[in-house]
Amino acid sequence: MKTKITVYFIPITHHDLGYTENIEALLSSYCRYYDSILDFCDRTDGYPEEAKYRYTVEEFWSLDTYLSRTTEENRTRMKKRIKEGRIELPALYANIIDCTADSEELIRSMYPSMRYADECGVKITRASLTDMPGLGGGVAEALSGAGIKYLFAGFPRYFEWADAAGKIPEMKHTYWSEQFGRPAAFRWGSESGGSVLTWFQSGYGWFGNNENACVEINGISDIAERLPGYIKELKERGYPYNIMRYIYRGSDNEAPSADICDIVTEWNSTLAGKTGITLEVATDSRFFDRLSEMCGDVPVVTGELPHTDYPVLTLTEAGTTAENRRARHRLEIAERMGADGGDAFRDIILYDEHCFGMSRSCGEEHELDLCMKRKYALRAAYTAKKLTDSVSVRSERLDGVFRFFFPQGTKGRATAEFSDRDIEAGIYRIENLRTGEVTHGQATEITDPLTPVPGLTDIYAESLCSGGARRCIFDLGEAVPMSVGEYRITKLSAVGSSCGMADGNYRFDTASYSLFDCGSGRTLTEPGLGRLISRDIATGKVTEAIVTDAHPTFDGPAASGFMTVSHLPGVPEIITEYVLYHAEKRLSVSVRILLDRTPARETFVAFPFRNDGAEFTYDTPCFEGKAFDTRLEGCNTNHCSVTSRAVVSGKNGRVTLDMREGGQVFFGGLHVTEVSQAHHMINPPGFEDGFVKQPESGNVYVMLAYNNCRTNFSMSQTGEAIYRFDITSSDSRGASVLFPPEEVGENFVPMLPHVIPSEENIEIVHIKPAENRSGTVIRLRETDGKEAEFSLDTGCGGKTVICDHCERPTGETVSGRLKIKPHGFMTVMFTPETTHLL
Fold first, then answer.
1. Which residues does the chain have with pLDDT short of 50?
2. Does 751-832 carry CATH code 2.60.40.2220?
3. Does the domain made of 5-163+180-303 have the CATH classification 2.60.120.10?
4. Which residues form the Glycoside hydrolase family 38 N-terminal domain (predicted)?
5. Distance of alpha carbon 477 from alpha carbon 437, whole angstroms
6. Residue among 536, 638, 90, 101 at smallest CA distance from 354
């Protein structure tokens, strides 16, 4: 008797934003696709149930565009088909490079489709991330925490492809040494215990007898010729399921077709009985629902599969990528102040979508496409600034009183930094009007337009005819998260007091560029802290930047600065500013690089931490990674994607490195860059070797720019990029480094008087207005890997409801203490009893 098996064909289109045609043309193409999809549904209404046309939307951005451009009649038709289950919605907005996001961006990538699903009266159950060799450890947390049950993990086998010369390298690694075969089901687990049922088919899930096969089905004869043999091979390999999944017409931005409906009808009436194989036109969730019935005991995978290609490749657009990450920070500050940043998050996400150009990544259409891509980041930056200005309601600083909002996630010292032409140069006394604490600040003339602070050059240029502009650094003392403080700021002297690059906390050696901790008596770094290096990709030769000028920039009681000018091959000008903050235990390193179009170059900044037996931890979206440890077996260790913070700990203590623009970080040495032959042009020396097993030192290298591509990303780049890094050996988490104070006016009222978790291992990840405007959404995470009970002090009475990550109440109202699992993430909604007044 024939083995009975059902084969599901999933009509779907792989979403590559701007890969096959420029973005605007592609959006128009998808609008035509959805017109056809609706017509296909109408045309096949009378077909047998298993042969009716169904379509799975891979990512929501295409349908979102269609809904905004089509007619009301088509919007009604679309809702009808979605309610019927003929068209299936995805959880995610885009094939986002998940590790380049932060926790909020990853979670917010589900909001648009979830909101539309609510309008349609359906529940989304599946997500897909396709065409990326890697997956962040927090994806399972984000998805399971939003009620998503299923994930299609479309990992490509790029390291088995031929290179640009047509040769298949003899690789000692691919991207993961999984042991359960392909195709296979497993559960991808989060650190806090959630999980999603994951289908691992490799690649897009094409019809074929191996994962790289892409057999187009042009008629029933193609299936009859191949499918029985494919099923036989699966069974001989021990495939345990009586269902199988293949996509139909699912290549890059491929137009959908309803031909499969006629093929399925004919097959089931003529060949199903003879072969034991029944075909069905299905959505992904129809397949997953059947699969879940057969998966009572499948492997559970927990950890990170560090990405190889795409996070590195975003640095082919170094300046815009840095701008997008700064825009995300500013947008999150605006939301913490009470603004609605929803639409701007769409732009942030679309910039982080995995395509940065055409399949042939040069020429006029590629440049046009790239300009359209850059628009997302630039529009997000504009919107974030506009939102911040709208909610801060700045007004006159009456009687020298300044008001600041503190968007930081933990208690700690806060330093305000801003530019202002109305504040005179000099030293200032700062009095906290609530606590009486007295601190100091300074305002210095901006004399160098190339100082590596975003926007400073424009401020300098605007002030040339108006008496100059000032750079202000104000120590505001201890601050409470999400609160507002009032300070009387009085000028003391027109002459700065001298501190230089040494104080009671640190001494920065301006000759060797090394950092000494005065309190512990430890030298924290080897010489060369903040030095830029370049690596020739073809030869592997490393070149250190040549310093042509070095000088102090400013001095005062709050901070002192020192600047260097240097250059590298491919980077004709590098401006590096070191700032020592005297009231905090902190040194910042800011870098402005000017790039020319030299190809086949990588640029890094070095942090040579002196620490034997170093261990490295870092944050990624909804996950804390530990280099060489929390990864899955056999996957990439050469570099990791860091959202904003890395910690180096060992025999020489602990040092924290904060990165405002995030980064692709090489821990323990400058290893080979692992971009596969699917994307890179030149195989670098050592590329075929295995991944690094152990760190060589405490050194940390952060990649700033990359030029070695042959598709999807530019081959070379020009322009400037600005980065900022902050170093501390204090146990403090550097509360205000990533989310610094924001000046507000007297009419600004925060959403809550403050938000203070009772336990130190609970950090505020984000706070925002609820989507339904009925309260304040607070996201929290546990930072020490310990289960915790805690309470939230919001400064006012009210009701706390536990929600999923997309703000839907789980039904549990909390009257006492909250419970959170080790490394857990939690979303709650707080509704005040009455509107609070300051």
1. 1, 836-838
2. yes
3. no
4. 6-293
5. 7
6. 101
